[in-house]
Backbone:
């Protein structure tokens, strides 16, 4: 069988391929996975168990059950997105299918979509798969923060929109609302806010759709995965202009199907009652790890953009004169430490993405010893 042109174009993610390999290494310490080591809140788990015991295990509407859609709309409203309501808020099996559905509803073949880089790899792949053209907005030239003028300079008569991701994966940067407000007024916006609840001192996240004149051309997407440690439950939620959301609902009915019924019941509890969970159980621990990692990098004069959100840091290892994938493989094979190569996030081959989502303090210290041993072989600065 000859595969379709679209199937041929879609290539394995470098990120996924690398971590398949990492999964075969015994005793590895991983800085790679975007999944915390915290547990799903007990009150959400209880609602999931209750749903099973009550035999709530059948199909639901493709856009989610009514109670969860209402809870999600209230969550968006709490963030200042006053346009969110039941008809224009839908549920999906995680944020990624909702990102795909949004771009499907907005993109025509040949359209250009601006993607600030470094970027979450599926953004680029989905745009290409739809026959549109992804256009890189290189934030590295501006300290890894998005500057509206740089994006606006790339707008052509084919530009349809821009994908925003703040707090950002892979840099941990939180972009300034003043810059987002200055983006070209003709752009559609797909705003991935999966990490909106995870910010540190110096980082303040504001939903761009909280500005009414921008909300009318913005699709906002959130996820239970990061905020409530519910990665495997697979629940995301979305709001946007009702005429676009109706098309997204059709996509979900046609190509995705309904979210897990049990997970939806658990998500109602999480979204309704769990917003202080991150503050009480996650932020302080993550911040301690963040500061420990930054201190280690500082002592080795390894530069990085200052992360004030999410749980990633994106250091520049160019002083070691090894490209990101060979360096990541070297650290994996010789130090048994898994760190994502920067090339997975665009043309950033001097960088590695380090996730501190699920490494304890003891693991951090052990990983530092292992990494230092490999780096000494590459260069021997006097402070190592």
Residues:
């Amino acid at each position: 069988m000859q595969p379709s042109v679209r199937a041929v174009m879609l290539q394995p993610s470098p990120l996924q391929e690398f971590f398949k390999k990492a999964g075969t290494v015994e005793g590895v310490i991983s800085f790679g996975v975007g999944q915390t080591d915290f547990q799903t809140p007990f009150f959400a788990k209880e609602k999931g168990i209750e749903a099973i015991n009550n035999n709530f295990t059948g199909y639901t509407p493709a856009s989610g059950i009514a109670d969860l859609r209402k809870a999600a709309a209230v969550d968006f409203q709490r963030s200042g997105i006053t346009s969110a309501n039941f008809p224009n808020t839908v549920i999906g099996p995680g944020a990624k299918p909702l990102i795909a559905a949004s771009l499907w509803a907005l993109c025509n073949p040949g359209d250009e979509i601006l993607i600030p880089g470094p970027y979450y790899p599926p953004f680029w792949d989905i745009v290409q798969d739809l026959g549109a053209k992804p256009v890189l907005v290189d934030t590295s030239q501006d300290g890894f923060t998005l500057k509206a003028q740089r994006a606006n300079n790339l707008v052509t008569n084919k530009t349809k929109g821009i994908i925003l991701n703040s707090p950002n994966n892979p840099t941990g940067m939180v972009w300034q609302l003043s810059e987002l407000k200055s983006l070209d007024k003709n752009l559609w916006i797909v705003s991935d806010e999966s990490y909106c609840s995870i910010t540190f001192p110096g980082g303040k996240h504001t939903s761009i759709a909280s500005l009414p004149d921008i909300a009318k051309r913005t699709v906002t997407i959130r996820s239970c995965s990061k905020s409530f440690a519910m990665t495997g439950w697979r629940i995301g939620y979305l709001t946007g202009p009702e005429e676009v959301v109706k098309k997204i609902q059709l996509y979900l009915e046609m190509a995705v199907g309904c979210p897990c019924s049990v997970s939806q019941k658990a998500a109602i509890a999480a979204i309704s009652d769990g917003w202080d969970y991150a503050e009480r159980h996650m932020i302080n621990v993550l911040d301690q790890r963040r500061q420990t990692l930054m201190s280690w990098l500082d002592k080795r004069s390894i530069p990085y953009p200052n992360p004030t959100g999410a749980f990633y840091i994106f250091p520049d290892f160019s002083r070691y004169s090894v490209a990101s994938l060979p360096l990541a493989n070297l650290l994996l094979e010789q130090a048994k430490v898994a760190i994502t190569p920067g090339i997975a996030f665009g043309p950033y081959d001097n960088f590695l993405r380090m996730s501190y989502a699920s490494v304890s303090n003891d693991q951090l210290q052990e990983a530092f010893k292992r990494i230092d041993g490999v780096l000494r072989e590459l260069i021997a600065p006097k402070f190592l």
